[in-house]
Amino acid sequence: MEATLVVGLFLALLILLVVRMPIGFAMMFIGFVGYTILLGWDVALRILPRMLFDQSAKYGFIILPLFIISGACVLRAGLARSAFEFAQRCFGHLRGGMALATVGACAMFGACTGSSIVTSLTVGRISIPEMKRHGVSDALATGTIAAAGTLGMLIPPSAMLVLYGLLTDLSIIKLFIAGLIPGIVSAAIYMAGIHLYARIRPEAVGETVRRFSWTERLKSAHQTWGIFALFVTIVGGIYTGIFTVTEAAGAGAVVAFAMLMTKSDRWANTRGSFYEAARTTAALFFMLLGAIVFSNFIRMSGVAVEISEAILAWPLGPTGTLIVILLIFVPLGMIMDPLSMMLLTMPVVLPAVVALGHDPIWFGIILIKMCELANITPPIGLHAFVIKGIAPPGVQIESIFKGCSMFVVLDALTIALLVAYPEIVMWLPSTMN
After folding, report:
1. Model pLDDT for residues 44-81, shown as the tens digit of each residue
2. Cβ-based neighbour number of residue 390 at 10 Å
3. DSSP state at residue 262
4. Based on the number of CB atoms within 10 Å of its own CB, is 198 exposed (0-12), middle (13-18) or buried (19 or more)?
């Protein structure tokens, strides 16, 4: 009975998403319907308001708006251009230098905003014209920014890691620290792939720029002081134990606000930053609360346990079963944004993964990397369509997907590396007190 009910309501949820109902409302509505069928109308009406209040009153929820405020301030402080210019001075003289600079800029800027979409759109508006001016092909220019922008989901402080931690009741501190090395490794693999591609297809990577002296690089680095200050404050403060994650979020917001105060039109930018932060926070809170209602319904129905037992019965072993689970995320990511995909699948997938003996913090990093891969996978990867909106006139979506293809392979290589060597993810968290 319960299994049939859950399957029917899950299909109803997918239909609601197809007709573009907001995922937070859709998950909350389906969860409420499930409670009503299982427990009755009166009980469901009593449970839902109490559940929403208890969850939204959790102290840990303050982390999310503080990080969102930091990202909004950084965005309006105009640090994306400084990050790109610094990366260009460091990598521009190498083969494929302009694409390498784009990856470096996305890694730095993504570490401040924690958002792949914001990173891609902001850095892309600067880097794509520069890459085109230096002769980089349309495919490589757009594919690079589509893929490199996703680094903002993994490199801390990441909104996706915060939401994963809130949804699963895992340590956000350990999630942040666990994402640091994989984020750097992922960016390094992107750069290595671009450099190799430049040797195979030198005509596609355009011309290089002159080699800048270390003095010139240091002068350029001075313009990016805010990025490094914010990263050291948040990640360094958390790792050394100076800050809790909530205190680090607050300190990061103060540093980001200080950056904003050094710019012109500071008060107009401040109003705009707080408005954007409030709107984004409200949307994410509603999505998270809807996911919690839906997750609790799944747990109460007992179906998650049944699915876990069925998955454990597969004769594939822990690693083989994990690979099959991960492959499911590829088609899902082609039609859903990363957050929606995570919120929808966690109630069912995470219990099975933990039952297989995998660490949930390690799996969270793998999951987010899978989200990155799925969102640039042809033919429907959503991130490519985001880049289409800022691409030069005449650039077709097919060209963007052609450029993304290489990065899909590189992402698959990164995921294989993280699965084969879990210590890449777990070593740094294990060194914390």
Report:
1. 888 888 877 777 777 777 888 888 888 788 777 777 78
2. 16
3. T
4. buried
Q: Which helix (H) or strand (E) holds 171?
A: none
Q: What is the mean pLDDT of residues 315-331?
A: 81
> What separation in angstroms does the CA of 252 have from each of 29, 85, 180, 181, 328?
35, 23, 17, 21, 36
Residue 362 exposed, middle or buried by CB count within 10 Å (0-12, 13-18, 19+): buried
Confidence of residue 16 (pLDDT cuts 50, 70, 90): confident
How far from 249 is each of 148, 154, 280, 428, CA to CA, in Å? Answer: 24, 17, 16, 20
* CA dist., res. 102 & res. 146, Å (int): 10
**What are the CA-CA distances from residue 311 to residues 1, 7, 356, 415 (Å)?**
20, 16, 9, 21
**HSE (side-chain half, CA atoms, 13 Å) at 341:** 25
DSSP 390: T
Q: Are the C-beta atoms of 159 and 125 separated by less than 8 Å?
A: no
Instruction: Compute the CA torsion angle 38, 40, 46, 49 (nearest 10 deg).
Output: 50
Reference 272, options 116, 72, 412; nearest CA is 72
pTM higher than the cut 0.85: no
The residue written with tokens 């982390």 in the block is: 63
Pure H helices in 149-244: 159-168, 172-200, 214-222, 225-231, 237-240
* CA–CA distances in Å: residue 214 to residues 30, 83, 252, 300: 58, 16, 29, 60
